[in-house]
Amino acid sequence: MPLIPNSNNTDSNNRPKAPDKPEVQFRKSVPIYTFADLILSDKTLDELKTVVSAQNNWKKVFVDWGLGSVMKERKNLFVNLYGESGTGKSMCAHAIADALGKKLICVNYADIESKYVGETSKNLSKLFSDPANKDEIIFFDEADALLSKRVTDMSSATDVSVNQTRSVLLTLLNSYEGMVIFATNFISNYDSAFMRRIHYHIRFELPNAELREKLWQHYIPSQMPVNVDIHKLAEEHGGLSGSDISTAVMKAALNAAKNNVDVVSESDFKLAIESIAASKKANTGSAKAVITKSEIVDEKDVPLSIREKSSKNEEDIK
User: Fold this and answer.
1) How far apart are alpha carbons 45 and 234 in whole angstroms?
2) 238 and 145 share a domain?
3) Which tens digit of pLDDT belongs to each residue from 110-166?
């Protein structure tokens, strides 16, 4: 008698189940910095305080004074903090939230990106559709990964997904009634559609000598035994960000402790600064440095030596 196949024992039932798509969770955090922690130029501080004032007066201007009746798509405040790496953009997002008495929902692109087509857009929709989030501040760090220019010459499913994500985010921002802060080192990568929707763009620059001196004083604790002229340190070593200076203080202290000495000396600080400067140079200027980001620039902005070298290479190819 022939065996009758068991319908419950088919190959399809024996195949391993596809793993469930992980559900993204967005956590709210209490700000850890205040305006008292910021060491910035008067101009930048004033712009940040203007943002706080704008949020506090939003209802007065858009509801009581009727601005919302003629600007119907401007439902709340969007702010962009841009400029050099390590200049305090993330700290300022915390300080703004603290001044407004709100929590931060910190989001990196890696938090919402998904290998599944369409899931990144769904993660964004979840973030913006939660009614509890509009009472807090959404903070996108390294926002250029999300707000970059849309692909015009689409050649793959990835290009389509990227454009879909950008379009979804634009739609979500149009209807969102909460506050959003973006931060980036690469504002030139932003799509112009996002630039138009952001109300305040605040630029962050590397500190001058006066601010560097204040930063050194801030990051060297009063109980740390040091033998160094802070004014001289600030004057002689430019090109350092606030983050660089805090790292230099830590490295100098650890080096002194390693050498089993009781005082952090000028040589400890200089050694730390030289190490930081060397790593920054390798990251930006070495021929062996790995390029992790690229930008499209006008030909006139390319150094002459590079243009001439490029022309020579083209002639050699011909």
Assistant:
1) 21
2) no
3) 888 775 656 888 899 999 999 888 899 999 999 998 998 877 766 665 666 778 889
Q: Are residues 37 and 94 in the same domain?
A: yes
Separation of alpha carbons 63 and 245, rounded Å: 45
**Tens-place pLDDT, residues 227-257:** 999 999 999 999 999 999 999 999 999 999 9
Instruction: Tell whether pTM > 0.85.
Output: no
Q: How many CA atoms lie within 13 A of 186 on its CB side?
A: 17
Cα 281 to Cα 156, 242, 247, 274, distances in angstroms: 36, 17, 16, 10
Same domain, 183 and 89: yes
In terms of domains, do 136 and 221 share one? no
Q: Look-up: residue for tokens 């040091």?
A: 226
Cα–Cα distance for residue pair 82/88, rounded to 1 Å: 10
| Pair (102, 251) in one structural domain | no
DSSP secondary structure letters along the chain: -PPPPPGGG-HHHHSPPPPPPPPP---EE-----GGG----HHHHHHHHHHHHHHHTHHIIIIIS-GGGT-TT--S-EEEEEESTTSSHHHHHHHHHHHHT--EEEE-HHHH--SSTTHHHHHHHHHHH-GGGGGSEEEETTTHHHHBPPPSS--SHHHHHHHHHHHHHHHHHHH--SEEEEEES-GGGB-HHHHHH-SEEEEE----HHHHHHHHHHHS-TTS-EE--HHHHHHH--S--HHHHHHHHHHHHHHHHHTT-SSEEHHHHHHHHHHHHHHHHHHHH-TTPPP-------GGGS-HHHHHHHHHHHHHH-
Which among 150, 129, 101, 146 is positioned nearest to 26, based on CA atoms?
129
